[in-house]
């Protein structure tokens, strides 16, 4: 074989490998909007050196307040909203048509406002059981194993399609200041490895869960033309190996982002930051190998009684290994409860440490984000 031919073969191999790599590091939706592709690329780039800070329901309500314009407890403490705001599709089903429309409009405004400020939205789905009572939790003697009902071939499959149509209609309505569709991170069926939700591992088989995930993505993307979603997969923390982590994984072609929810190792049940960091490393390592984004999709310490939790627990966990984490989200601050909150408010005991967390170059808040949806002007 001639040297020229050998070089040609190696050149073709190089082109093939670079193409394969490029396909990995893109949204699974080949028709994703330009802003969705740019957000994906921005999160991937930023995660090499930074992590976006996220807070659930940050701008909808907080500790002792609700519905104030341009307010969040995080902004009241730091001067900036979180880089990412968590919201929920919980109001999109199981209610009257009027209540559903009101919920959609409130959420539409919240998501658009966040986008127009330059922030990011991640959406969870505390989906009320569509075939029985019990809400989104599993209630013995009340709940039915709804996954088997709503997947293709199930008794309530057509009902599920209608619910997804409602989500798709909403996704088509969220438009920025220039009329462009707003990209969001959609994180359905989280903590599926536990038994507390009706979609949990105790209430459906592996095959049923994968069928549910694949149908949900396919129907939204391929049938209903939703092209502004980034799809995030996030079990709870019940794994210590990649194999266990991937036990119900639907496949790389169905997931944009891999994550983990972990409260137990972060102070709720125990302080085990070495273990938490190991689990996060499994997530991050898989993301890099598969060409996906990674995130710490939920965590926190209720009431934050540990005055140095932000730097000595959360920051240390995320920085213990060389990891790429697009964001870390802490849970909500309840309106009325004096103890149910996960981000500090003015005067809360962890505020001084939170300011150190805020000032650390590793963490990004909304004021730190620049051009994450658009190409920089030359």
Protein architecture, described:
- It is a single chain.
- The protein is α/β, with parallel strands linked by helices.
- The chain is 38% helix and 12% strand.
- It has a single domain, classed as TIM Barrel (Alpha-Beta Barrel).
- It has helices spanning 3-24, 34-46, 73-78, 97-117, 146-150, 157-171, 206-223, 242-245, 273-290, 309-319, 351-359; strands at 51-56, 61-62, 65-66, 84-88, 120-124, 184-187, 229-233, 257-261, 293-299, 327-330, 363-364.
- The protein has an eight-stranded parallel barrel. It has a two-stranded antiparallel ribbon with strand order 2-3.
- α9 (273-290) packs across α10 (309-319) and α10 packs parallel to α11.
- It is an enzyme of class 3 (hydrolase).
- GO terms for molecular function: hydrolase activity.
- It is found in: Secreted.
- This is Mannan endo-1,4-beta-mannosidase.
CATH superfamily: Glycosidases
According to CATH, what is the topology? Answer: TIM Barrel
Helix content: 25-40%
Query: How many domains is the backbone divided into?
Result: 1
- What can be said about the biggest beta sheet? 8 strands, parallel, barrel
Low-confidence stretches: 6-22
Proportion of beta-strand residues: 5-15%
Structural class: alpha/beta
CATH class categorisation: Alpha Beta
CATH architecture descriptor name: Alpha-Beta Barrel
Keywords:
carbohydrate metabolism; 378 residues; 11 helices; globular; signal; eight-stranded parallel beta barrel; TIM Barrel; alpha/beta; 38% helix; single chain
